[in-house]
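Hello,

Following up on my earlier ticket. Below are the two sequence lines again, exactly as submitted.
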Amino acid sequence: MLNGGSTSHGDTMTAPGTKPAPLAGSASTAPALRRRLPLVEWAVFGAFAVLPFLLADFLTVFASRLMILALLAISFDLVYGFAGIMSFGQALFFGAAGYSVALLARDLGVSSVLVVLPAALGVGLVLSWLVSSFLLLGRHPPSVTFVALGTLTAAFAAEELARSWYYLGGQNGIPGVPQLTLGHFEFSDLAFYYLVFALFAAVYLLCRALVRSQFGLALAGIRDQEQRLGFFGYRIDTFKTIIFTIAGAIAGLAGGLYAYHEGFVWPSMMGVVLSTQIVLYCLFGGVGTLIGAVLGVIAIESATYALSEQLPTIWPVVLGIILLVVILFRPTGLIGLVVSERERTGDFGRPGPGAPRGTSSDAA
Amino acid sequence: MATAFNALFEILSFTSIMVLVVLGLGIIASMMGIFNFAHGEFVLLGAYFTWLGHAYGLPVWLAMAFAPVAVGVIGLALERLVIRRFYDRPVMAMLGTYALAVVIRETVRGLIGGLYLNVPAPLVGSVTVDGMEFAQWRLAIIAITLLVIFGSWALLAMTSFGLRVRASLENPALARASGISTKAIYAITFTFGAALAGLAGALVVPIFSLFADLGLRFLIQGFLGVMLGGAGSFVGPILGAGVVGSASAALPWVISPVVADVAVFVAAIGLMKLLPNGMLAGRRV
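Thanks for your patience. The regenerated structure is below:
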């Protein structure tokens, strides 16, 4: 019934001329609007595709960590950048899925990629569906603060639980997660890297298609003008729940991969600190573009990698100051340096009949 | 019987601390409509300044009196520099104050290292009533909290300054039109809220000792208290803090502490779902 509601709304929105059909129209206006976003995307993915041949082995390992965290950042960007839901607990789904696959490996000895990845995805999906249907659905539309606080509290509580639950290894977490396998094949460094790369690319493409679909446009509408979309008859809560659940599944997938990347899981994987770290990635890179979140992960993690050893005590302070400065003075983030405001918030190269879009300053 | 009274006393003293924390948070949330994620770090700063004063040889009670002033000054500076840009942008305010919180927490962590530092209580020993022992310092905390609540209430309800504060809260545009500088009122209120957090930090440091993550759990419990009681009134957040504080102090006597924490969080979020405007919805006090 929920899906029925959303598709019918999606259909009613397909006003004549809004369909992707007038590609010819967009081609005629194209010279005026050179799109840079795809260039950035190609650059990032091209770089990740060839990196293992250029870098030392340990940096390849680091690069696969970047891609996993980028998946996590994308999941936050989906909920915040595209639907305006402030989730301060995205790490909850990440960590819970990580713990699940670690338990699978420890107690059942299962490390097959065919089981592990669907399990991680499923845990993220179910958990985020539970959280979002509790926080977002209901008689009273939830306030922004309530959702932020609810997700924050959930992550905090989960971390506390994991910290003191003997079965989950308490403070130390669960060590000794083996390597992913497929039959007798083990995903060691390079194979694991390309597995992560393939998943990263696939998820990115799916998300890219999703946010450019009618569903994504409705989400952007909700982000910018929630009340108006409500008056149009969109079921805002349902839309938000769907995107939150999808994002949770992606976060879960990332968490499963991360457990196998690190070889162990520990309580802070689902805690508040990581959750807010994700927010930092996205804001720094630029919200609402997907690739911005990826750039944020690359920039911040690389800087942390390079600097945190020289400046172990100062670096977290510097990160906080960066976050503050970005919020105050550069709300569009890194991506705003290369991509115009119109393209960043805009119609993704599909200029519709109602040419200029409204501002989205508050959500961005 | 004696243990029951002692338990009750423990619960009461912890609830007083929560109320002190939430009072500042609630005042800021009600006035400016922003949830100050740096509030827990103001508590931490209060504890830190108390420790610092003590380490430099001040008597503890003097260090405790100095801490809220110092935190208030920092709060004022932050309000002027940063916070005022976030009024009526609640999401940005959350992120911005969170960033502030990171800066403050990590700075304190850098200053004290990963240590747990102890500060002695200014009042040591206990009062014995009818064979039951009550720690003097906890008694003092309860007394100070009651004084602060009464003082803030009197300030808001009985002075002309309080009238202007309430006017700016009810209807900022009309308040400005009547010649009230809402900007100044906001700055003063934020300073006051920060100073209250600093006081709370100063008072709890003998009990909890000083460590960098002191603020976080106060922050979450404080938020739950404010949301539960309902921002926008004076009594609401206090009531919410009373409920959250006493529940999270009472439950560990029955079930294991961690489960108790989680249970309180879940129950508070659940209650909020049922009462989105707070427990005092519609009855503005």
